[in-house]
Write a structure and sequence with these properties.
alpha+beta; Glucose Permease (Domain IIA)
């Protein structure tokens, strides 16, 4: 490449060879403005213009972030509701039922170390993802513990209902049929003429009056003996046993499961007795107890006193 210069002495243009440095300098001067302009344009393009694929990814990322935020809000609401259940559990259900509280360290137990969420690290929104996952695991843990607590309460209530059904709590004879009551305790035997323990109560009613089981249980004896005549013994579980004596007729069989209030026989005067009545005994853990304690709430004080006032006449006839 040649460059021509004007020679003032010869008044003409003479050829001059351009060195590498000169050529490089000239090229740089020509190219540099283009580089500057291109750089500036590229900056503005990448800064203020979004390509379709990038725009789509940005929308997806934004939607995911919004979903995570919405999920966290829902998690906060669920957490408050769980706290309400826990408060009812600790302040209402368990105190009423006499159950011990669930230990605080169990309710607020951990849900796993940081390594559990290591697969969520390295993303632009890793902190949000880990926080959400941690909250979800915490809720699941709390719900599981609360579910177990409610199962314990439910099982306890069911057991209490079963125990209540198996506890003698009603009269074995309807109140309107009873004309007199023979009391529990030490007394003079009206037939044998000796002073001894009367282990039950005598409920005086007309012959063939219906007799009912005072609680759920299984018939373990259904026979005749000299003292009680025809009698039935029912094992109710939970330490309770009841005996029904002087029956005219039994209407159950040994091994039969009886429900509270179910008819088991008819009143009579079999055995050592000369008046129609039911001799009724209640045993708790092998010891006789006053049956009146198990159905007193079905009688008013006036009704009970009225029946007791007839004992002088009744006890002259009925006794096992």
């Amino acid at each position: 490449m040649k460059k021509y210069k004007f020679n003032p002495e010869t008044l003409g243009y003479e050829g001059h060879k351009i060195s590498f440095k000169e050529r490089f300098f000239i090229a740089s001067i020509r190219i540099f403005p283009g580089i500057i302009i291109g750089g500036v344009l590229s900056f503005f393009i990448f800064q203020y213009f979004v390509f379709p694929d990038e725009a789509r990814l940005l929308v997806i990322q934004k939607n995911k972030i919004e979903k995570y935020k919405t999920l966290n809000n829902k998690i906060d609401l669920i957490t408050k509701n769980i706290a309400h259940f826990v408060d009812n559990d600790d302040d209402l259900y368990r105190p009423i039922l006499g159950l011990s509280f669930v230990a605080e360290n169990i309710r607020n137990g951990g849900v796993g170390g940081v390594e559990k969420y290591k697969n969520l690290k390295g993303y632009e929104n890793s902190n949000l993802m880990i926080k959400t996952s941690l909250h979800l695991d915490f809720i699941i843990s709390r719900l599981l513990i609360q579910s177990q607590s409610y199962n314990e309460i439910t099982n306890f209530i069911e057991e209490q209902k079963k125990q209540q059904a198996c506890t003698p709590s009603i009269r074995p004879v309807k109140l309107e049929t009873i004309t007199a009551i023979g009391t529990f305790g030490m007394r003079m035997h009206p037939i044998l003429g000796i002073y001894r323990m009367h282990k039950g109560v005598d409920l005086c009613s007309p012959k063939n009056t219906k007799v009912f089981a005072s609680a759920d249980g299984t018939v373990v004896a259904n026979r005749f003996n000299k003292g009680l005549g025809n009698y039935i013994k029912i094992n109710h579980g939970y330490g309770y046993v009841t005996v029904y004596g002087h029956l005219e007729k039994s209407q159950v069989r040994i091994g039969q499961y009886i429900k509270k209030g179910e008819k088991i026989g008819l009143m009579g005067t079999t055995g050592i007795s000369n008046v129609d009545h039911l001799h009724y005994e209640v045993y708790k853990n092998g010891r006789e107890v006053n049956p009146f304690k198990y159905y007193y709430n079905e009688l008013t004080d006036r009704e009970y006193q009225s029946l007791i006032s007839n004992n002088a006449k009744a006890e002259g006839f009925m006794m096992k």
